[in-house]
Design a protein that fits this description.
By secondary structure, the chain is an alpha/beta fold. Helix content is 46%, strand content 20%. The protein has a 6-stranded parallel β-sheet, sandwiched between helices. Strand 2, helix 5 and strand 3 form a beta-alpha-beta unit. The longest helix is centred in the first third of the chain and has 20 residues.
């Protein structure tokens, strides 16, 4: 090989290496739908303004996010009011994780617990996942973010600015702010 051919081949190797980086599937997005809905006392007009597609597109702009390998959305999907999200879920390839309460009373934190268990499980079983995006403003996820850091993972939070827990925000490596449907109500009332 001539020196010029070797240089040209090295250029191809660098190009292929960079192409490999951009093609890596290194990200998991875990959506706490209950947190996005601010509980289950939401109105249909509120949920109509939530776009999982817009959240996904915002997350894609984060520097460390490669291709998304896993997406899961945690909610009580038997609630017919959530049917409006079906289009985004199908289009984005999100796995809807059905959450049932284990008691007859409130179902508080059931989705949070399942999301945290899945994140730790993924950190151990899917080692190619380097970036965990937690779509929630719940302060309980600060502990999860710290644990994922112990495993060498990058954590991106994603929530409404007014309702994001400041400790969770502080322990995340990056944070994505999403539009709060309540704010659009205020804007439309002012206009």
């Amino acid at each position: 090989w001539s020196e010029a051919e070797q240089f040209a081949n090295r250029g191809n190797d660098v190009c292929n290496f960079k192409k490999g980086l951009s093609m890596r599937f290194n990200t998991a997005i875990l959506y706490d739908i209950e947190n996005l809905l601010k509980g289950y006392n939401f109105s249909q007009s509120f949920i109509d303004k939530i776009s999982l597609k817009e959240i996904y597109e915002s997350v894609e702009n984060i520097e460390n996010v490669g291709n998304v390998a896993i997406q899961r959305a945690y909610a009580n999907w038997s609630d017919p009011r959530l049917n409006v999200m079906k289009g985004d879920i199908v289009e984005l390839g999100i796995d809807p994780i059905q959450i049932f309460g284990f008691s007859r009373g409130a179902k508080k934190n059931v989705a949070d617990i399942q999301l945290a268990i899945d994140a730790v499980d993924l950190a151990h079983t899917k080692t190619a996942i380097e970036v965990f995006v937690i779509v929630s403003g719940d302060g309980g996820f600060a502990s999860l973010a710290k644990k994922l850091h112990e495993y060498g993972k990058i954590v991106v939070g994603c929530a409404y600015k007014k309702s994001a827990n400041r400790i969770f925000e502080a322990v995340c490596d990056d944070f994505v702010w999403v539009d709060d449907p309540d704010d659009s109500d205020i804007i439309s009332r002012v206009s």
